[in-house]
Design brief:
16% of the residues lie in helices and 36% in strands. By secondary structure, it is an alpha+beta fold. It has a domain of 221 residues: Mitochondrial biogenesis AIM24 (Double-stranded beta-helix, 4-Layer Sandwich). Strands 6, 8, 9, 11, 12, 13, 14, 15, 16, 18 and 21 form an 11-stranded antiparallel beta sheet that branches. About 5% of the residues have low confidence.
Length: 329
């Protein structure tokens, strides 16, 4: 340590006092390193205090082990009550439109499938395992297939089929290989999985294909439904277990109905349904003109159930094409 002398506070006194000169820089660094670091207050203790300040109050002694009450699910909107329709329309969360434009991919016992090129040029591609059979519409459904697939046709005469105007023949494709199917009209394809506990009604031209355990039969409708629903006197009755593929003219819209919920579909737009419906007149006009043209008669469904409908009416489209076709001079 260096000592230096400097004059006292009064320069005339002549006395000197000893002062301590600052150490050199290297010695300052050594002293700073030797000094013990100050202990900071523990952070954990501060966090515990802050958590204690914002933590919820504890349960009483008798309710410490009681669980929190479960949240109640939101109540389902009753769309049949006009008071629940804000602005005259259902809430946006309830709306389900034609959103099935992405590929539908799935599997079944003995193969897999993909629905692609939606929703007006849709094709169904099926990969079949060895010995797995597949039933399909006999006329106009097959687009292409692997040479390893075996095609077998059966012809069965039935009075019911003749009266219903159904196909007397059926086509069965057996794997292994790839099978591509498509409807005759410009439209979409959707799959319906059957569990053996439900029964579906399918329009006369909507059936495309099904797996082996699906049972296809005919179901007779009433005379009024046969004339004005656009589906004819007989429709397909589908039951069993497996996968069913149906096609449409235009896009397909799926509508799920709650218990007691009602929904109206115009005639000529039905594809498949598993709930009952009645014909109802919704438009005013003369009785004779309405019955002759079918105008004002619609299909009114009541839930619970599901309805698949198509966005185009084949008969109306045929009328449209006939109106714009050039007439012979």
């Amino acid at each position: 340590m260096n000592l230096a002398l400097r004059p006292a506070a009064t320069p005339d006194s002549g006395h000197y006092q000893q002062v301590q000169s600052p150490p050199p820089p290297q010695q300052q660094q050594q002293q700073q390193q030797q000094q013990p670091q100050q202990q900071q207050p523990p952070i954990q203790h501060q966090q515990q205090q802050s958590q204690h300040q914002f933590s919820p109050p504890p349960f009483p002694q008798q309710q410490q082990n009681a669980p929190y009450p479960q949240e109640k699910p939101p109540a389902q909107t009753n769309l049949n009550n006009p008071a629940n329709l804000v602005g005259g329309a259902p809430p946006p969360s309830h709306f389900v439109g034609a959103v099935a434009t992405s590929d539908d991919v799935g599997t079944f016992n003995g193969g897999s499938y993909r629905i692609s090129h939606r929703d007006t040029n849709t094709i169904l591609t099926i990969q079949l395992a060895v010995g797995c059979p597949m039933h399909a519409k006999p006329v106009g459904a097959m687009v292409a297939m692997s040479p390893t697939i075996t095609l077998k046709g059966n012809v069965k005469f039935s009075v019911k089929k003749i009266i219903a105007g159904g196909e007397l023949s059926s086509s069965t494709y057996t794997g292994p290989g790839e099978l591509i199917l498509a409807p005759s009209a410009l439209g979409d394809i959707t799959s319906i999985r059957l569990t053996g506990q439900e029964q579906w009604s399918v329009g006369h031209d909507a059936y495309l294909a099904s797996t082996q355990a699906v049972v296809k039969d005919y179901k007779r409708q009433g005379l009024g439904k046969a004339i004005f629903s656009g589906e004819g006197l007989f429709v397909y009755k589908i039951s069993g277990t497996g996968l069913l593929w149906v096609s449409s003219f235009g896009a397909i819209i799926r509508k799920d109905l709650a218990a007691g919920e009602k929904y109206i579909v115009d005639n000529g737009h039905l594809v498949a349904w598993n709930t009952s419906y009645v014909l109802e007149r919704v438009a005013s006009g003369g009785l004779i003109s309405g019955l002759s043209s079918g105008e004002g008669l619609v299909c009114k469904f009541t839930g619970p159930g599901t309805v698949f409908l198509q966005t185009r009416n084949p008969r109306e489209f045929a009328t449209f094409l006939g109106g714009i076709a050039p007439q012979n001079a």
